[in-house]
Specification:
The protein has 179 residues and is mainly beta. Helix content is 0%, strand content 65%. The protein is built from no helices and 10 strands. Strands 1-2-3-4-5-6-7-10 form an 8-stranded antiparallel sheet, with no helix packed on it. A two-stranded antiparallel sheet has the order 8-9. A hairpin with a 6-residue loop joins β1 and β2. The chain starts with a strand and ends with a strand.
């Protein structure tokens, strides 16, 4: 079985397909939720871990028409996340919630940045919401309130480099159609 990925040519926007002969991805997640506390609050904790391994020979080009074969390699990526949060139901169908999120850094995709992995990071988020009947609700979320810009991903993919900016605020309005 072949696994397909891509990589760019130097630092350009030209990408070449890469076929990896073998890969194995293992992951698990554990979530613990408290019972309702005084019929208003709930606390939760989620821990997850993922391990990705790529083995054997890689081919640049499609599996049918390879253009070059790289040497045999073995690479490993591991990611760990820990998420602690709480939700408190307020009067008038409103709620407040908070989350603390820790993540080990992704694999470093930029050879000019030292280290095999990006720096681990912790963020703190807040949310307030209200339901207006059974179908309509609105909420406001403040993400990364701790005021720290975080480099999430610098791999050479079509999506580019991703940062989590400090104090981003989002407003969400929902309407549930009958289905």
């Amino acid at each position: 079985m072949n696994f397909f990925d891509h990589n760019n040519f130097n630092n350009s926007d030209l990408f070449f397909p890469i076929t990896i002969q073998g890969a194995r991805i293992n992951g698990w997640e554990l979530t613990l939720r408290s019972p309702q506390i005084r019929h208003r609050a709930q606390v939760y904790l989620t821990y997850s871990n993922q391990l990705a391994l790529a083995l054997a020979t890689s081919t640049v080009g499609s599996p049918t028409f390879p253009s070059a074969t790289a040497s045999t390699f073995s690479t490993m990526t591991s990611a760990t996340t820990l998420h602690l949060g709480a939700r408190y139901d307020l009067p008038f169908h409103s709620y407040a919630s908070t989350d603390v999120y820790y993540a080990s850094g992704f694999t470093n995709g930029d050879p000019t940045v030292p280290g095999e992995h990006l720096q681990p990071h912790t963020t703190f988020d807040l949310s307030l919401g209200k339901s207006f009947g059974e179908r309509f609700s609105a909420n406001i979320q403040a993400i990364n309130v701790a005021n720290r810009r975080v480099l999430l991903d610098n791999s050479f993919t079509f999506g580019g480099t991703h940062y989590l900016n400090p104090r981003e605020i989002f407003v969400q309005v929902r309407y549930r159609f009958h289905y």
